[in-house]
Design goal:
By secondary structure, this protein is mainly alpha-helical. The chain is built from seven helices and four strands; from the N terminus they run H-H-H-H-E-E-H-E-E-H-H. It has two domains: 154 residues, no CATH class; 82 residues. The protein is globular, with a radius of gyration of 26 Å.
Length: 279
């Protein structure tokens, strides 16, 4: 049986691109909601919907596009993230429906007008909280899986870099008595170790990481300036929703800057070490 074909770069990067698409959709929806004059109840309904729709669409995209990890820990992490996203999206959808069970009484607080819808809103809040907890656990498991794979690859790499021929297992004999050495494991087979990237691939990775790092860095600086101005000009009694969302977006984009900065640094180090070896 032939080994499965190596995934395309688009499929390898699908978790990042689908997540960015969901965040962009959420940002566009929130910008549209905040730019329209809505009453308080309708505003919260639209805000819940703008969170629920990207989250549920991301779950559908993740099921079809995100690569399935080979390790058991990675599989559990993937299930945790998908379950967390699904509960988070469904929770916000239930909150959007249940918000109509409350009514503003004009004296400064909400009162319950429909008990079943109010209970639906509370149930949605519980689902959102559980989903957020599962997302945190899933992300921590992903970090643990990455650290485990790096440790295992670090144990394998010295033997791969040695000049001696790898042990291919016991020799096989064909029908005429001639011995045949088994071939190296291919992608998707146990024991496969990917070949080191070429200098051209490392240069392309460094250029791409540098471009994305600088681009997201510029966006993070703009969002940081908006956040500072928003909190600086906030008047007593005003809602800080806009400034708070800008701070959340700043944190998210900063994480992307750190990710691409690490890729930029790793590619630069690999190119420098390769140049020193050749000299």
């Amino acid at each position: 049986m032939e080994a499965p074909a190596e995934p395309s770069p688009l499929r390898r990067w699908s978790p990042l691109w689908t997540s960015l698409a969901a965040v962009a959709l959420f940002t566009a929806a929130v910008a549209a909601v905040t730019s329209i004059a809505l009453d308080d109840q309708t505003f919260h309904f639209a805000l819940y919907v703008s969170v629920a729709v990207p989250a549920l669409l991301l779950v559908v995209a993740a099921v079809w596009l995100w690569p399935r990890p080979s390790s058991q820990l990675g599989t559990v992490a993937r299930l945790g993230i998908l379950a967390g996203l699904a509960l988070f999206g469904l929770g916000n959808a239930l909150e959007a429906v249940g918000i109509w069970g409350w009514s503003w009484n004009g004296s400064g607080r909400y009162v319950v007008t429909n008990q079943s819808l109010a209970q639906t809103h509370d149930l949605g809040g519980l689902g959102s909280a559980v989903g957020e907890a599962l997302l945190v656990v899933g992300v921590l498991l992903v970090a643990a899986d990455v650290a485990q794979r790096r440790r295992s690859s670090g144990r394998v790499s010295p033997s791969r870099e040695s000049t001696s021929a790898p042990d291919g297992g016991p020799a096989l004999t064909d029908g005429q008595g001639a011995t045949q050495q088994p071939s190296e494991p291919r992608w998707g087979e146990p024991g496969y170790v990917p070949p080191p990237p070429t200098s051209g691939q490392l240069e392309a990775q460094r250029s791409s990481a540098r471009r994305w790092c600088l681009g997201f860095g510029a966006v993070a600086l703009v969002l940081l300036a908006i956040t500072v101005i928003g909190y600086w000009t906030l008047q007593p009694g005003e809602d800080d929703l806009g400034a708070g969302m800008s701070a959340n977006f700043t944190l998210f984009v900063t994480v992307l800057v750190i990710v691409f900065a690490r890729r930029w640094r790793q590619a630069s180090r690999a190119l420098r070490s390769r140049g020193e070896d050749q000299s």
